[in-house]
UniProtKB/TrEMBL annotation:
Tagged with keyword Nucleus: yes
Region Disordered, annotated ranges: 93-113, 336-390
Subcellular location: Nucleus
PANTHER family: TRANSCRIPTION INITIATION FACTOR TFIID (PTHR19879), TRANSCRIPTION INITIATION FACTOR TFIID SUBUNIT 5 (PTHR19879:SF4)
SMART domains: WD40 (SM00320)
Gene Ontology CC entries for this record: transcription factor TFIID complex
Protein role: The TFIID basal transcription factor complex plays a major role in the initiation of RNA polymerase II (Pol II)-dependent transcription. TFIID recognizes and binds promoters with or without a TATA box via its subunit TBP, a TATA-box-binding protein, and promotes assembly of the pre-initiation complex (PIC). The TFIID complex consists of TBP and TBP-associated factors (TAFs), including TAF1, TAF2, TAF3, TAF4, TAF5, TAF6, TAF7, TAF8, TAF9, TAF10, TAF11, TAF12 and TAF13. The TFIID complex structure can be divided into 3 modules TFIID-A, TFIID-B, and TFIID-C.
Protein name (Swiss-Prot/TrEMBL): Transcription initiation factor TFIID subunit 5
Provenance organism: Prunella himalayana
Length: 752
């Protein structure tokens, strides 16, 4: 704050340290209130112990000798021990916890600098300076590493040791870890893969090609099986020139690989590296790894295996601490006209009709506001039209006849097989009321079928419409042109395979996204294209409408997801953070959040309001291809190429279940309407049904689990499996529960 700044400047002037004073003035103006940079620059050595009696007056301010100054790095508070003038060792401590993040000793190991993207650096010392928690002390944020320049990123590999010793260093560490106690071995084994990659890249960058080759051949077989694909990419990088264009490796370099290790294991590792004077490995640990240290028992091999496997290690625990409003929005209230005609038909046998207690307004189903729900007006949602209200009424009538599912009462499954789909079926969607099904094809067409006896009709031409009496009761019927009625409509417009399709909730619109980089909005009244949204430069893999309509999301090869509104030709939000293609996207039932799955093997949850990433889930061993939120909004199910379905508690940010059984990529996941059953469909030609109630009951989400991420998954998920249904030779690409809980599945028959 200002007073401190003035005090420090006066002290510098009294000590005749004009140069430092100038620097501090410049820094202060440049960074607003972020003054820590000045404190850490060597020119202001006067701050860390001056000379004579003037220095003593500064002691209260800046604690000379063994005093300490605190520097906040990226939201963590770090202590700068100023044991001797000019040497600063930084240990990061998260706010409110006495827990060090990265520590440094003296000598060769004190190379830790506060270099985190968007670091906030502020200075506070024992005595007169304000504490790190003072409000308003941090305003300007310095973006240090936002868009890394390729050459700058790679040049970090310059200051290197003897290339012939790399194998010795690595095998020495390997021997040490393999001989350590079982409880530490599992945790420290996580170091093998990131160290292997960085040491190999270092050798390649410094043009020690033969050493790099022999290093790769000797140790690549030791890495976990789920890193095989990454190692294949790595093995093709054999020259310095190859590294410039390779995005995957550039990401690996710029994003710190996150390891979660207990304090005991970390101390063991640190002691070993210091005794061996193994600077090479220690430098890599300091430069390229983020070690998230926790207090308590080390994790077991099973616990670690469940969580690792993504491109950049695990998620930092801090990443999953933000509050998420996962509750549902209150349904709007409106009166429902009750008619009994539909019940008459069901009593042919002359039984007396059962009197049902008449509800006044079925529309007011959820009177109470969900405590975890976002405020109703947190994001602007479209108003309900009369047709929407009518649809809600229909929905409620259907819901009254819904079958209650459970282990004793499994749903019937109706499978739509696309035969002779030589065009290559690449995407399917079914409307909420199950009246239409759409297929996206590799020949760039979008085909819409009616699956009810009612045929698809277009609106009449403008000339014919002008002849209609607009006041008549059946005006909505009259505007339709019977001559156009057919079961199938084909929509032409894309110039590449169509990878994603989505119906709007009101069934008036259809979205499709394609390899051509566009998302198209089609009218289901005229069966023509209304808009082409151009924002992605590369193939768009998935798109989905918000459950309230109007908004939609798309994700693609350019690694970002975009939020759009149908009436804007530019995206409203761009969600950037994934390290590889965004392969699938899903809206949360309350429309305030979007989940994205990626080929970097992580799932992220984004806040629509401000574009922030509020959850990062790691644990899959392959690209994510399906996402499903539970109807109550509390849980998320994800499926990937590793054939596992993982279950996540959104509120606590924890993995709470793992469903094993599929033997191939899971392309479809869907919860039943009341959330009792989770259905999964896979390339292994099966649909499997899982007991969702049992999977989510009595979860251990106590504070300790949340704090350390020690999850205890049941050994066997077979007792959650309620049924497996084989198709003859049809991979399942889409699943949908009707309003009465009949399960619809879809896929294209493959002859091989």
């Amino acid at each position: 704050d200002r007073q401190t700044l003035v005090a420090v400047l006066q002290f510098l002037r009294r000590s005749n340290l004009r140069e430092s004073e100038e620097i501090l003035r410049r820094e202060a103006r440049l960074l607003g209130d972020d003054l820590g940079a000045a404190a850490l620059s060597p020119a202001s050595a006067g701050l860390l112990g001056g000379s004579g009696s003037d220095a003593d007056s500064g002691e209260a301010l800046l604690g000379r000798g063994t005093g300490a100054a605190a520097v906040a790095i990226g939201g963590n508070v770090a202590t700068v021990a100023t044991s001797s003038p000019g040497v600063a060792a930084v240990a990061a401590v998260p706010p409110g916890k006495g827990e060090a993040r990265g520590e440094c000793g003296a000598g060769p190991f004190s190379r830790r600098e506060p270099r985190e993207a968007g670091s906030r650096v502020l200075l506070a010392a024992s005595g007169a300076l304000p504490s790190a928690g003072t409000q308003g002390s941090v305003s300007g944020v310095v973006a240090v590493e936002d868009q890394p320049d390729v050459s700058a990123v790679l040049s970090a590999y310059n200051q290197q040791g003897d290339p012939t010793l790399y194998e010795e260093y690595y095998s020495g560490l390997k021997h040490f870890i393999e001989c350590s106690l079982d409880c530490h071995r599992a945790e420290l084994s996580q170091l093998f893969y990131p160290l292997f990659v960085h040491m190999y890249l270092e050798l390649v960058y410094n043009q020690h090609e033969s050493e790099a080759k022999s290093f790769f051949e000797r140790f690549h077989g030791d890495q976990e099986c789920y890193y095989q694909d990454d190692l294949r990419v790595l093995s093709s990088l054999t020259k310095k020139e190859h590294m410039k264009g390779n995005e995957t490796m550039l990401d690996f370099r710029t994003s710190k690989f996150v390891l979660r290790i207990s304090r005991d294991s970390y101390q063991l590792l640190k002691r070993h590296l210091q005794e061996k004077q193994n600077n090479q490995i220690w430098n890599i640990v300091q430069e390229h790894l983020y070690i998230d240290i926790f207090d308590g028992m080390p994790r077991s091999k099973q616990q670690i295996d469940a969580m690792v496997g993504s491109l950049a290690g695990e998620a930092k625990r801090e990443a999953n601490k933000a509050k998420v409003f996962f509750g549902l929005l209150k349904e709007p209230e409106f009166d429902v006209p009750l008619d009994d005609e539909d019940e008459e038909g069901e009593n042919e046998e002359g039984k007396p009709k059962k009197k049902k207690p008449k509800k006044d307004n079925v529309g007011s189903k959820s009177k109470k506001q969900d405590p975890n729900a976002p405020p109703q007006n947190r994001i602007p949602l479209p108003e309900l039209k009369d047709s929407d209200k009518l649809d809600k009424v229909m929905n409620m009538k259907e819901a009254a006849r819904r079958v209650r599912l459970g282990p004793e009462c499994l749903p019937s499954i109706c499978f739509y097989t696309f035969l002779n789909a030589y065009q290559g079926l690449t995407a399917v969607d079914i409307t909420d009321d199950s009246s239409m099904i759409v297929g996206g094809f590799a020949d760039s067409t979008v085909r819409v079928w009616s699956v009810t006896p009612k045929k698809l009709r277009s609106v009449k031409t403008a000339a014919d419409l002008s002849l209609i009496d607009k006041e008549s009761d059946d005006v909505l019927e009259r505007i339709m042109d019977e001559k156009t009625a057919s079961e199938l409509k084909i929509l032409y417009g894309h110039s590449g395979p169509v990878y994603g399709t989505s119906f709007s909730p009101d069934r008036n619109y259809l979205l499709s996204c394609s390899e051509d980089g566009t998302v198209r909005l089609w009218s289901l009244q005229t069966f023509t294209c209304l808009v082409g949204y151009k924002g992605h430069n590369y193939p768009v893999w998935d798109t989905q409408f918000s459950p309230y309509g109007y908004y939609f999301v798309s994700g693609g090869h350019d690694r970002v997801a975009r939020l759009w509104a149908t009436d804007h030709y530019q995206p409203l939000r761009i969600f950037a953070g994934h390290l590889a293609d965004v392969t699938c996207t899903r809206f949360h039932p309350n429309s305030n959040y979007i989940a994205t799955g990626s080929a970097d093997r992580t799932i992220r949850l984004w806040d629509v309001l401000n574009g922030n990433c509020v959850r990062i889930f790691t644990g899959h061993k392959g690209p994510i291809h399906s996402l499903a939120f539970s109807p109550n909004g509390r849980f998320l199910a994800t499926g990937a190429t590793d054939g596992r379905v993982l279950l996540w508690d959104i509120g606590h940010g924890l993995m709470v279940g793992e469903l094993k059984g599929h033997t191939d990529t899971i392309y479809a996941l869907r919860f039943s309407r009341d959330g009792e059953i989770l259905a999964s469909g896979s390339m292994d030609n099966t649909v499997r049904l899982w007991d969702a109630v049992k999977a989510f009951e009595d979860l251990e989400t106590d504070d300790f689990t949340t704090a350390t991420g020690h999850i205890n998954l049941p050994e066997n998920s077979q007792d959650l499996l309620l049924g497996t249904y084989m198709t003859k030779s049809t991979p399942v690409v889409h699943l949908h529960f009707t309003r009465r809980n009949l399960l619809l599945a879809a896929g294209a028959y493959s002859s091989q």
